[in-house]
Amino acid sequence: MADDMKKAEEAVQATTHASLDLDDLNLTEDQIRSRKLELEINKERDAIILANPNKLPVAVWFIIPNELGERFCFYGITPILKNFFKYQLGYNIAADANAMKDIFMGLCYFTPILGAIISDSYLDKFKTIVSLSSIYILGLIVLTITSWPTVMGVATTQMSRAGPLLGLLMIAIGTGGIKPCVSAHGGDQFLSVQTYGLQAFYNYFYMSINFGALISSTVSPMIAQNEYFPWPLAENQTLTQYFAPKGLKAPLGNGYPYSFLMMTCFMIAAMGIFIAGFKTYRVVPPAGRFILFDHIKTGITYAGYRMKMKREDAYKATADIHTEGMVVEMLDLIKVIGAIWPAPIFWMVFGQNSGPWQDMGEQMVVPFGGSQKGFFGTETLNNFWNPFFICVMAPILANYVYPFIDKRFGVRAFGLQQRIVVGQVLAALSFVVSALLQRWVNSTCEAGEEKDSCAGTVSILWLILLYVIITLGECFFSISGLNFTYTEVGKRTKSSCAALWLLTSGIGSFLSSAFLTATMSADQNAVAAGTKKYSEITWNRENFLWLLAGCCLASAMVQFVIARNYVPKAFRETAKF
């Protein structure tokens, strides 16, 4: 054992010298000091890791369960959120409920920027995760209490919006803030010699996300669909009669507070497991200042010189002021931003699979004698198959399809940018099929019934085909995008760039909300107000689905042009240009 520890310490010293060699780029004094501090405070942990480098660090077994628990909570909220807005908070128009859900999702993907700034610049990742997880838990508690009718002393359909919306805001800050930190913190537990161990960790990490989503997206709707609280019905009034004046079908249940309570308990347990691993974690110290601000200053300096001199001269002049390492990282970051800017359109379209698709499912027939409350009901169906197919498809693509293509046609034939394009095309195809399916469903309704709300005779199992197509598109697009934003930037901007990738999803959610408000929501409100007949509106569900398909296809065409001109960092002649 003593010999093993001695060898490990020698390996740590060798790693230290290699790290302080500082690559082929000069760094600032603060960057050098940060590197030295990281090596010093992790000396003992690194020795333990290097004593058996083929074994996964103990720390990851505290990080992975934490991620599973947190994702269980998040994906337990999202499938029931639309109906919670519709039936409990009074957003009676379906498009309004979908728009509110999109706003929540958008906030969840905007706040990663906050988490990245805090963890990279001021607090380390562990402290950031614990701090923001506390806000997350507090938000879950507020949401649970303020949505509980007997606690609030009101009827289940007369809940105040203020409390639940405040809770959801806190949840969005918490879940989004920790999102770029947890995966990066997991990566920090590995040394440079543990390449295969790092890959194994991210495989387990990604599987934990989808395993948590798979369970919660099934269990949470089942709990929410139970009736735990009395409805405020008049004497001899049925539930259908009560909701008919609101333009709504009778709800399946009102058990939302119990679902929220379950997720609160899981998040508390997840945070407890994460904190329990404190002594096993490698810690990467923060920079002590706003890193992105340094890159912005570097970019402004470079732009000023570029207006007066040639590119290479501007590069050298900027490097003399801000160091060459900072200039290269800034240029890499700009290239990546230029390559991913169409991504919000994909996320805008992708987010509609839990809105219009779920609404379409309510018109369809549940097979095997089941009901909408069962496994094949629209809420469960629309949130089970996506994580299920990800768990199936992602390993197949990573372990078999991509290696085969790389070996057969070369690594640049189907690179990350090309996969992103294919993902967008598949997403567009799924919405073409969904528009045709909506037309089919409406055609089976009784004569005289309003389209998009009538009961058709088409089986809800056809929705599974849509999830096969769009999930395959997500695997190509999302996983490749995460990989792209990690590999194409420098070491000090990886967390920030990961947050920028998540930001594209947030922008997409807000675009989705704006689209719904300007199209379907406006027309549905006009019908509800009596100013239009349903046959007179432009944006029925089928036309809206065609619009989404067209937007995604247009985005894919733009992305194709970008992919044709983008040179991956590994294949550039120099690191600079």
Automatic annotation (TrEMBL):
InterPro entries given in the database record: MFS_trans_sf, POT_fam
Keyword Transmembrane helix found: yes
Cellular component aspect of the GO annotation: membrane
GO MF annotation terms: transmembrane transporter activity
Keywords associated with the record: Membrane, Transmembrane, Transmembrane helix
Topological relation to the membrane, as annotated: Multi-pass membrane protein
Localization terms from the record: Membrane
Membrane spanning residue stretches: 103-123, 135-156, 203-224, 258-278, 384-402, 422-440, 460-486, 498-518, 544-567
Pfam families: PTR2 (PF00854)
Family: Belongs to the major facilitator superfamily. Proton-dependent oligopeptide transporter (POT/PTR) (TC 2.A.17) family.
PANTHER family to which the protein is assigned, alphabetical: OLIGOPEPTIDE TRANSPORTER-RELATED (PTHR11654)
The name this protein goes by in its record: Major facilitator superfamily (MFS) profile domain-containing protein
Species of provenance: Chytriomyces confervae
